[in-house]
Every structure is written in C-alpha cells, then in structure tokens.
Amino acid sequence: MPDQIVERGGVPVLVCDADGAPVAGPQDALDLIGAAYAGAEVVAIPAERLDASFYRLSTGVAGEIMQKFVNYRLRLAIVGDISAHVAASGALRDLVYETNKGDQVWFVNDLQELDGRLS
What we know:
Layout: E1 4-8, E2 11-15, H1 26-36, E3 42-46, H2 61-71, E4 75-79, H3 83-88, H4 90-101, E5 105-108, H5 111-118
Parallel strand pairs: 2-3, 3-4, 4-5
Antiparallel strand pairs: 1-2
Helix pairs in contact: 1-2
C-alpha cells in the first residue's frame, strides 16, 4: 500500500507504508511533508521505516526530523513498537515521555492508539 491520506479519528492523516523509502534525515522528512500538503494534518510513520540513527539521539537525526514537522505545523506520529530502542536509551525514553505529553509529536503503538489521541 503506498503512502495515502485517510481520515483517522476525524482528522486527515498521511499514513505511510512500512515498505516505503527509509526516513533517514531532514530531506526525507521534507518529502513526507510535501506529500502531506495534499490535505493531511498528521503524518503517521511506521517505526521500522525510520533509520536506526533516529533512535540514537546523539546523532541529532530525531531532532532534525521532528523540527521539520514542527516548523511546517504538521503533527508527527511514530507508529509501532520501539520498546527495544527505549530499553537501550534513557534519553530516548525521556523524549518519548515528554513528546507524548504534547500535541505535536507522538509515539504510539498502533493506528488505533493514534485514533484515540486524535478523537
């Protein structure tokens, strides 16, 4: 299934395909943002589509990608199980905790959890 905009929880969401191009840096984020400008308010990226460097906060990749979405006023949802990454990094655990308290970037287990946050 290609990336497509669907309504979830009453909100247009660009749901990205798990088999799509890897998201490894700011340019990849901008490509998704461009696709979302067809009418989405949220971009839902499968966790496995993010490059491993995203989960190593010392690389700065997560911050660069998340900042692009904030700058363009699009919400970002990372969808999937990242428990192994969180277990390996206290800093990532803290990031997930803090971002999930806000309304700009969320880490959710599945699309149903995203639906709950959106409705």
